[in-house]
Structure formats: structure tokens, C-alpha cells
Design goal:
Strand order of the largest sheet: 6-5-4-3-8-7
CATH class of the largest domain: Mainly Beta
Distance between the termini: 199 Å
CATH architecture of the largest domain: Roll
Largest sheet: 6 strands, antiparallel
Radius of gyration: 65 Å
Structural class: alpha+beta
CATH topology of the largest domain: PH-domain like
Number of domains: 6
Number of helices: 15
Shape: elongated
Strand content: 25-35%
Helix content: 10-25%
Length: about 625
């Protein structure tokens, strides 16, 4: 008979996982027929919609029902959170940060809060809230996984937990359900726990350096360096020399000043007393009161040693930059044996005097001579430029005179004549224009004594006219006016012959040609006078008579110069019209009978008059 009427179990566990188990025995122990098809083939047949020619197709069987405790079995959401609690009776901590893990079980929507155990914390830790459904409010709602997110606060049984992060499975699950997660936050740390992590004591291994051995080994051994401190960049600064001593016995440094005789400085022997010099200080030593306390090893990371003093390299001590340029023989031997440095040459630090700066003068302003204007740039109270006293004494009252004509397109200026006077003592030039009566031009002083600059010369370095520039036919440019030298006097000719070295061949040849022309015209006058010898006696007597009667005539001396100025060829004759014009300008009494007779005797032909004999009657 059948005795077992129960249903066979359809669930089983394999390796800790729930699996579906199909029963092989039915109610009453009857053996069920085993399906020969696989599960995949059964699913395909169940979902296959048959196509019928007539009628409605059969509906597909519904999907297999899976209960929640199977679908969400062992699927848990994990969140990292912390909460803060006050510590009222402790002097070491005022509040405490406790880090926890919040688990949400999707199987039955229950939650639990677990605090990881910290060794020797003295606080009961572990499971703070056991697994259960937690009420969200007083209405009776419970926390759901939709209420959880990163960066929010949740309150459970009066304690506020701050959720800061979650694991990867929780993030993927919530994002798959359409929940937008907040960015993760940094986990808060407990200050007292961090304090306990630091070591209680900091031990410093004692150094194996033996100061006594160093003292006995290097006693009375000193490294000597010669250095300079270049302080020329600051106001009233200069380049000073010092001697730096490094004592090998204790690593101390001193800086001694080098004084010279009559250097004007107080004779202090030391710039810096013997002491250990720190090279690198700690950060806390910046505000260290060095003026009242000595720096100890706790404030210094590195001290100056012998390897820091090298010839040819700068060194900064007490804010001063020293340059080491030499050392003594013992120091060289020590560096060769200790550090293997054998080439420590002496560096020449003597500064050469800079070349003198050429004084540049401002542009010439046009007032006075360039030399006079330049004196305002040399001194606050200008002085007169230096003169060549020897030249002034040797050439005193020596004047070179020349006859010149003015080159001008104006017709009235063609007959104007000028007398150039060159003063050898001062190299100055003056110009005088003889007045011509009724010419419309006021004669007299044309240019006062001054130096005349040559054209095309530089304004800053002018070149003045000298005696070598004046000769017959030379063109002289005086402040924009061009003059041509027509004649010279006898003193100029003798001066040129005695100083021929300073004249050009052109100037000397022009003078020779001028003299030869005058000598050629002289025999013609002598022959003419010989032919007219019978009338010469009458002419001489007439000249004497006129001189006695007109001895008080005012313009005696200028008549000859006026006639010579119009006689360009120096022939001794002028035309009749010019003769009477000159006589009229000098108020010569030509209406008197004696003067008329003299004009008749001096006439040669109808157009020419011998002004040479005529002028003799009006000269001393």
C-alpha cells in the first residue's frame, strides 16, 4: 500500500546556492515520467507561437514565477558612513568620529549597521543595529533602497549617519534602477585616533663623531682664504678685502678685515667673530631670536664646512657675498690631500680703471664763438677760453690786408670794394668798405673783429680761415657772402715769401703772376713819362701849387684807395666817367682852374685819365 503522500521538495542547496530540483517521485511514491527534452528546448516550445491557418493562435504560457527571497537572495547594498558623538568629560578629545558600514538587504528590505572593531579603543563596537526593517517616520513607513544615496544624512534611532560612499555593486544597481548618485565624499577622520597613531617618542641615534679626536688631530690647523666683498653697487660702497679663517679643530669661521695705511677706516680687526656658521636653517628657525639666543643643532640642517670654501667661487655669509680669490700654501696642500683638488689658481681681482668718458657737448646754439659757448658746459661759472699768449706777443700789431670784391648777382654790388684785415695775433678778420659818395650804400665797418668759419665745416669742431686761405683769386665765404681777393699789399707779399711752407703752390703762383703783371706795366709808364718829359716839370709845379692851396682837404688818404678799387688791372688809369664820379663822391673841387688844368694834363686820350699823378696832388 501507499504510505507516503507528501509532495517532493523542489528546492535544494548546492555549494551554498539555492538551485531548482525537479522531483522524480510524485505523491504516493509513484515514479514520474522523465522529460526527455532539455530546459532550453522546453522554453523554446513554450514561447513558440504556432501559426494556424484558421483561428486565433494559442497564448504563450506565462514566465516562470520566481519569488523575491530567491531573486534577491544574498544581494546586499553596502554604504560607508560615519556619525559624530560628543565627549563631555575628556580633556584630550571634545568629539569623536565613528566610522560604520550600513548594509541594506534587498531580500526583505531590512538594514543593519556595523562598526569595524578598532583595537584598544575602549568603546563597545561591532554590530550597532542588528538586521531589521527600520522605521523612517512616525507614520510607519520604513527605509527603502530608493531613500539611500551618497552625500545624505539619515537618522536611525536618534543617531544621524552621514553616508559618504558605496561599493561598486551598490553603485551599479542603483544606477540601473534609474537613481542618480551624488559624488562621493571624503571619510572624516577621528582626531584622537590619528593622534594615537603617532609614535610616543622620537629617538635620535647618537652620532659616532668624536670631538676629542678631531681636536687632537686638527689642533692649530687653520685654513686661510683671501676674499673680497664687492659693495660698489650700493651708495658709497667699495670693494674691500678680507681674510677668512676656517678652524679645522671645531669647524668655526672668522672673518678678519685687511686695513691699509691711511685708508680712512676705523681699525677694527674682525668683521665676524669666531663662531660656527649655519648654512641651511630649518623652517622653524626663521623667527628664532638670534639676537638673544645662540643657534643650536635643532635649528640648523647644515653647517659650513671646509668643502664650502673653494677658490674661485662666491660665498654668502651674513648677507654679504664674498668672492674667494686666493689661499695660503697649507690650504692648497690640505685640499689636495683631503679632497683631491690640486689646481687652485690665484685669481686676479684687480679692477682696471674704466676708460674716461668722452664729454659730449650739446648742439651749438649759434650765439658767439663755439669755444665761448662750450665753456658753459665745463664749469658752473664759465671762464674765458685760454689764449695763446706767445702767439699774441709775437704777432702783436701784425695785420695782413687784402682788397676784395663781392660776388653778387645784384648790379649795384659789382663795383663795391672791401678791405680785409687779418690779425695774426688772434686769427680774427675785420672787413672795411670805403664809402663811395652818392652810391646809395653806406660804407664803413662791414664786419667787426671775429673768427670766420669755413663753409662745410662741422659745427661742433669748426675750422676757421687762416692766412694760407688768402691769396689773389681766392674765394672767401663770410657768413653766406662770397668775396674774391683782388690785391694784396707789400707786407702780405713779404709775409708769404717768408712763410712759404704754409701756403699752397696755387697761392704762391697767384702772387708771382700778380707781381709780374705789375712789373710789366711799370716800364710802359716810364716810357710814357720819358716821352712827356718836357711837360713833367710843369706837372710837378702844378701839383706843388695845388698841395699848398688844398692842404686842409679832408679826404686825402681815401682817394687813392677809391681809384685803385676801380682799377682792377692796376694799370694806373680809369675811364673819364668813373674819374669824375669818384671826384664827386670825395667832394674834389674840380671847378677850380688849377684842378681843371691838372685834369687836362693827366688826360690820355678822350677816355682815360692818369689818376696816379692826380692823386699826388691830394696826398701828403
Amino acid at each position: 500500500d501507499k504510505t507516503a503522500f507528501h509532495r517532493s521538495q523542489t528546492l535544494g542547496y548546492r555549494n551554498g546556492y539555492a538551485v531548482v530540483r525537479r522531483p522524480t517521485v510524485g505523491i504516493g511514491g509513484e515514479r514520474l515520467q522523465v522529460n526527455q527534452l532539455s530546459q532550453a528546448e522546453l522554453d523554446e516550445l513554450a514561447n513558440k507561437a504556432p501559426v494556424l491557418t484558421y483561428g486565433q493562435p494559442k497564448q504563450a504560457p506565462p514566465a516562470e514565477f520566481i519569488p523575491a527571497h530567491v531573486a534577491f537572495d544574498k544581494k546586499v547594498l553596502k554604504f560607508d558612513a560615519y556619525f559624530q558623538e560628543d565627549v563631555p568629560i575628556s580633556s584630550e578629545e571634545h568629539y569623536r568620529i565613528r566610522q560604520v558600514k550600513i548594509y541594506y538587504y534587498l531580500e526583505d528590505d531590512s538594514m543593519s549597521v556595523v562598526e569595524p572593531v578598532v583595537e584598544n579603543s575602549g568603546i563597545p563596537q561591532g554590530k550597532l543595529i542588528k538586521r531589521q526593517r527600520i522605521a523612517k517616520n512616525d507614520v510607519g513607513d520604513h527605509y527603502h533602497w530608493k531613500d539611500l544615496n551618497r552625500g545624505i544624512n539619515i537618522t536611525i534611532y536618534g543617531k544621524t549617519f552621514r553616508i559618504v560612499d558605496c561599493d561598486q555593486f551598490t553603485q551599479v544597481y542603483l544606477e540601473s534602477q534609474g537613481i542618480e548618485l551624488n559624488p562621493p565624499e571624503k571619510m572624516a577622520l577621528d582626531p584622537y585616533t590619528e593622534l594615537r597613531k603617532q609614535p610616543l617618542r622620537k629617538y635620535v641615534t647618537p652620532s659616532d663623531f668624536d670631538q676629542l679626536k678631531q681636536f687632537l688631530t686638527f689642533d692649530k690647523q687653520v685654513l686661510r682664504f683671501y676674499a673680497i666683498w664687492d659693495d660698489t653697487d650700493s651708495m658709497f660702497g667699495e670693494c674691500r678685502t678680507y681674510i677668512i679663517h676656517y678652524y679645522l679643530m671645531d669647524g668655526t669661521v672668522e672673518i678678519r678685515e685687511v686695513h691699509e695705511r691711511n685708508d680712512g677706516r676705523d681699525p677694527f680687526p674682525l668683521l665676524m667673530n669666531r663662531q660656527r656658521m649655519p648654512k641651511v636653517l630649518t623652517e622653524n628657525a626663521k623667527n628664532f631670536p638670534q639676537c638673544v639666543l645662540e643657534i643650536s643643532d635643532q635649528e640648523v640642517l647644515e653647517w659650513y664646512t671646509a668643502k664650502d670654501f673653494i677658490v674661485g667661487k662666491p660665498l654668502t655669509i651674513l648677507g654679504r657675498s664674498f668672492f674667494i680669490y686666493d689661499c695660503d700654501p697649507f690650504t692648497r696642500q690640505f685640499y689636495k690631500e683631503k679632497f683631491g683638488i690640486s689646481d687652485l689658481p690665484r685669481i686676479d681681482v684687480s679692477k682696471q680703471e674704466p676708460p674716461p668718458i668722452k664729454q659730449e657737448l650739446p648742439p651749438y646754439n649759434g650765439y658767439g664763438l663755439v669755444e665761448d659757448s662750450a665753456q658753459n658746459c665745463f664749469a658752473l661759472i664759465p671762464k674765458a677760453p685760454k689764449k695763446d699768449i706767445v702767439k699774441m706777443l709775437v704777432n702783436d700789431n701784425k695785420v695782413l690786408r687784402y682788397l676784395a670784391a663781392l660776388e653778387s648777382p645784384i648790379p649795384e654790388d659789382k663795383d663795391r670794394r672791401f678791405i680785409f684785415s687779418y690779425f695774426l695775433a688772434t686769427d680774427m678778420i675785420s672787413i672795411f668798405e670805403p664809402p663811395v659818395r652818392n652810391s646809395g650804400i653806406i660804407g664803413g665797418k662791414y664786419l667787426g673783429r671775429t673768427k670766420v668759419v669755413k663753409p662745410y665745416s662741422v659745427v661742433e669742431n669748426p675750422i676757421y680761415y687762416g692766412p694760407s686761405d688768402f691769396f689773389v683769386g681766392a674765394i672767401i665765404d663770410v657768413f653766406g657772402h662770397r668775396f674774391v681777393i683782388l690785391d694784396i699789399d707789400e707786407y702780405v707779399r713779404k709775409y708769404m715769401e717768408s712763410n712759404a711752407a704754409q701756403y699752397s703752390p696755387e697761392a704762391l703762383s697767384s702772387i708771382q703772376n700778380h707781381v709780374q703783371k705789375q712789373e710789366a706795366s711799370a716800364p710802359e709808364l716810364e716810357n710814357k713819362q720819358a716821352k712827356e718829359e718836357p711837360g713833367m716839370q710843369e706837372l710837378e709845379s702844378l701839383i706843388d701849387t695845388i698841395q699848398k692851396q688844398l692842404k686842409d682837404y679832408s679826404c686825402k688818404d681815401n682817394i687813392r684807395e677809391a681809384f685803385q678799387a676801380h682799377d682792377k688791372e692796376a694799370s694806373g688809369y680809369v675811364d673819364r666817367e668813373m674819374f669824375f664820379k669818384i671826384c664827386e663822391s670825395f667832394n674834389v673841387p674840380i671847378d677850380e682852374s688849377l684842378v681843371k688844368e691838372l685834369i687836362r694834363m693827366c688826360s690820355h686820350g678822350e677816355d682815360r685819365i692818369d689818376y696816379y699823378n692826380f692823386v699826388r696832388a691830394f696826398s701828403n
